[in-house]
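hey so u asked for the seq, here:
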Amino acid sequence: MRVLTSFLVPVVAISGCIVPPPLPTVAGPEADLIGRLRGCIVTQGRLESGSLSTIRVVSIPSLAKRVITPSMPYRITCVKSLSGPDSAGRIAFVQDEPAADRFNLVKIIHLDGTGEREITRIPAGTPAGIHPWRDPGMGRYICLSPVAGRLAFIRDLRGRQMPRVFCQVGTLETWDVEAASKLRVVGPAVDWGLSWFPDGRRIAYIALHPRHRVPLPAPGDTFGASGSRKLECWDEVPAVVVLDVETGETTIAGLGLFPVVSSDGMKILVRDLEGTTRAIDISTGRYSKIEPPGICGPVIAYLHDDLLVYQSRPTEGQPVRRSWAGSFRSGIQMLPIKVCDLSTGGFQTIMEAVDPRHAVSFGTAP
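ran it, structure tokens below
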């Protein structure tokens, strides 16, 4: 190992890869919280070849681990995104094939590896799009409802340049898993996250709306109004929209991206482009600060008793682990998944090292 220094950020050369120094750690000690959780965390897993072809499952509170290896038909090699498990113990996932003419398979599989079934398939690129990377046929997120067997994703995306950020806008589709049939199509929707309500009837997604139509934070709140990518100069801002799948009615809940609906359906967690997090109370429209210790990535779940599952910087004393795979950003620091009690600030590590590029989901499976 050798240390290189630039006038901006010191970097470290490891096995031919130049990577930034380790992230700052979070001071301990950790609390005892895992026993208050019931469910499973699922994330993408790699084969020895480096291919993201498996699904890793961690049961909570036992922390028992297992790996699901879906079938790989055609030239399919990659689990692209995933969600779940739902109350029936099912995981939704997307497989794709890394070639210009590839397509996406939307599938369901049970936690024990049985019941694998294709729901639909989506072309890799949007019709008349420039390239599948710029105008992908399917967005980065798939979202399985906790109950009722419903699935959502955004498809046929087109790139759109906003102030200081590039986004992709497409059409939101919801599906019935059992019947493998389409339920409702709405749009436009931005590929900035999806989250079902606990009733499996409503889903939160992001759309661009004129500022005057969006309930904003109280004066003085810096959410969305600070940093180099603040939203103050946008004529249309990212808004959290709640869709009732059965009636087709929509309501705008507030400002933000990457929604996470609380397990009681009363609040929606959102982030701005600087990574600041707020909770929007759906009944009052009030924004409140959410500051779990060491947050360094997405919120995965907002559960009962103010428990939050999220990606964090490591706790002081935990080893630094880096990913060995990936043609881009190989050597990236892997991060722990933690649970935090927002009422006390206590936290505990659930998984010590997850590649921050990987999809992660939590569900209260049976």
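The chain has no helices and 26 strands. The longest strand covers residues 181-196.
lmk if thats what u needed
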